[in-house]
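Re: folding output
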Amino acid sequence: MSHDDKAEPADGSTPVRLRALVVSDIHAVPDSKSKQASWADMSVRKNPIDTLPGFLAEEKVKADVVLCPGDLAHQAHGAATTWAWEQLQKIAKAVGADRVIATAGNHDVDSRHMEPSLDPCDNLKELQPPFPLESANDYWANSMSLVIHDGWRIVTLNSCFHHNANEQEHRQGRIEHSAITKLNKQLSATDAGAEVNILLCHHHPMPHTELDPNDRSAMVGGDHLLDLLDRGRHGRWLVVHGHKHFPWLSYAPGSSISPIVFSAASASVLLYPALSTQVRNQVHLIEFDTARSRAVNLHLAGTFESWMWSAGDGWAPAPVGSGLPGQGGFGFRVDLADLARRIADEHTRLGKRVLHTPELHALEPRLEYIAPIDLVALEKILQCNHGIRLGRMSNGPIADTTTA
């Protein structure tokens, strides 16, 4: 049977809850001489990665797994790679996570042979506990590995598998057709009971053009990868990637249940000027609770929290305008014009008074799962078509509505 003939698995009978903390693109450096690359200077205490475990513990953040989409160190520096991996273990302990799952980034691979070893991944293969997860043999042999646990499934994919091939490969990610075929077989064998599915990779599987209209660093073959994960053939999917340092959440092209694509911020890289005017360093907590999402007839829907780091202030909840907001959701795909009309009708029915958050959620219980990109569009439609202002809290969620 080809994967085109696969049917979407039925919902599991047992609800699934998964909390994944995403810490991406650390770009750790060994000393202050490299400070121009990253704030994560392992020779200095109180850098963003050193302080993150304490901050998360104080905030009482809990996670089941820590995900790192790559670039532990800047330019594959050996000692900095080891330090960053050790810090991720400390972060996992601080949030109560029982495992770290990572993948290699282009800066993790010594593709230019700065170190004496002939294997450009030696720095990674020598890490303890094993990188990118406890059982790493499949990852190094086949460019991917699969973790299955209590109704959820995570694939970690090495989009840098071919970075030692030639100069062009340094500049982009890749997934070969043979790897997609292997992944299809692995997913077919494990589809039963996998209600929450995450694919972790470094490179973005589709062009990321917010700051670079001519983006050429996307994963070659990424469109075929997204197609494999589309249309419910292997359940529904969230893709988490790094590399761009631009926090963003969107839906992949394809069907109405195409993969959700979560572009993680860099936790600590020194952002270049054009990027620093748009976003900040962030980490994210993604949460799935299928008991709650099933109650409002949604499948792969979830929420997220984001925290921002700034020099002098340290870590804090992310405000709107810093990348991803401090709180948000995803998975509720809706005709925004219809939703705006329903809100406007309710506004009129109640005498055009302020509609507060509880009333809006009573009108549409799936609002907590609306993606930030759709929330911005909803604001504009309400303003332009109905003369209604949609109020937002400083950290992202809807606060109320008033007449404009």
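--- second protein (sequence, then structure) ---
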Amino acid sequence: MRTDLITKAMLLAITFFLGLIALRPFAASDPALAGAGDFEHVRYMGRFGIGNQSGNLLLDARTGDVWGYGYGAISGGSPSGGSPSTGAAEVIYIGRLSKLGEPLTGK
């Protein structure tokens, strides 16, 4: 008699937990999706430093255009690797990536 009660309790627990697993997708809310909107095709390629200028390189994945957003001259540099000294960021068209392994075109 004691074994029968334990078996029924175990089966009830298994049924309950399997029911929870089966119903979880219906009870969960949809995840929030953060879309980039108009700029989802833009890829960050890294930082660049040429002479006294530094900035970020961005790739337009639709067209293959590579753009440099530069900071102008860096005065003296800082321990964090340099920061913009004055003025607004400069936008520089670097060229177009037409085929991997070949130079950028259309400067």
